[in-house]
Amino acid sequence: MIIDHTNRRVLEVLESREKAKVKEYLEAGRSSGLFAAVEEVTTDMWDGYVEAVKEVFQGKVRVTVDRFHVMKNFQDRLAKARREIQRELSKEDASALKGSRWLWLTNEDNLTPEERQELQALCQQFPRLGKLREQRESLREIFEDRQLQTAQAGAERLREWIVQAKQLGLRALNEFCRTLENWLDKIANYFISRSTNGPTEGFNHGLRAILWRAFGMRNFQHFRARVLHAFGFPKPQ
Q1: How far apart are CA 198 and CA 193, in angstroms?
Q2: pLDDT tens digits for 10-24?
Q3: What is the spatial distance between Cα 138 and Cα 132, in angstroms, rounded to a whole number?
Q4: 62 strand-pairing partners
Q5: Cα 194–Cα 198–Cα 199 angle in degrees, nearest 5
Q6: Distance CA 58, CA 51 (A)
Q7: Residue 236 pLDDT
Q8: pTM of the model
Q9: DSSP labels for 16-42?
């Protein structure tokens, strides 16, 4: 799905996410002048998308990896790292963590006072898990820091975070650090204009609603037509 964030609409729905298909669409849009004003493209960490943009626009368009996909990737690694620590605990200690997954993966702002107290007690009881939680919060705070206004400043803070995260010695966390290092320049572009694919999730929900109402659709062209009819027009400002 290709989104026009400026006008808040779906530009196109492609049948495949393969690089060749994405590049073909972008080439057509560039040739027709549709993308003449494009300055930035936000995407997830999929090489096909990024390479297609680079080849079509020849480096003249900034590529930004969406922060929400970065945090989702981190959440997945965080869950693995948490299980990595729990496997080292005794059965008695591990049982004390049952039902606490929500606490470790939720922003503190979304926790009730009682849940915060419970989380704080668990962090004191299990210091390594507490430090893992601290890494989660510090990474989120970097993306929320409005004083970071350049890619260079954002990249520097993220590098500092990587150094601290690696000190925990957790395999799953180290895997995320490698991902962060590999995509650092494009992730750091977020701090320039703070563009994200957040609104895309709303469109994704709308696409799923179309499928639900139709009890599934086997004909892609019919599905595409319905999506563009529902979400392909610019929204009023």
Answers
A1: 14
A2: 999 999 889 999 999
A3: 10
A4: 40
A5: 115
A6: 10
A7: 62
A8: 0.85
A9: ---HHHHHHHHHHHHHHTTTTT--EEE
Say yes or no to pLDDT of 227 above 80: yes
Least confident of 87-91, 162-166, 171-175: 87-91
Could you identify the residue written with the tokens 């995509």? 183
CA distance 209 to 76: 26
Instruction: Write out the H or E segment, with its range, that includes residue 11.
Output: strand 9-12
Place of tokens 């993308």: 35
**Rounded to 5 degrees, what angle do the CA atoms 36, 38, 42 make?**
150
- 127-156: string of b/e by CB count within 10 Å (b at 16+)? ebbebbbebbeebbebbeeeebeebeebbe
Instruction: For the chain, give the number of residues.
Output: 237
Q: Is the dihedral of CA 204, 77, 177, 16 positive or negative?
A: negative
For residues 227 and 165, what is the distance between their CA atoms, to the nearest angstrom? 42
Long-range contacts of 232-236 (CB under 8 A, 24+ apart): 232/9, 232/10, 232/11, 233/9, 234/4, 234/7, 234/8, 234/9, 235/7, 235/8, 235/9
Name the 3-class secondary structure at 2: strand
Residue 6 has pLDDT above 90, yes or no: no
Residue 237: what pLDDT? 55
Closest listed residue to residue 189, CA positions, set 155, 235, 224, 214: 155
Radius of gyration of the chain (CA): 21
64: burial class by Cβ within 10 Å (0-12, 13-18, 19+)?
buried
pLDDT band at residue 40, thresholds of 50, 70 and 90? very high
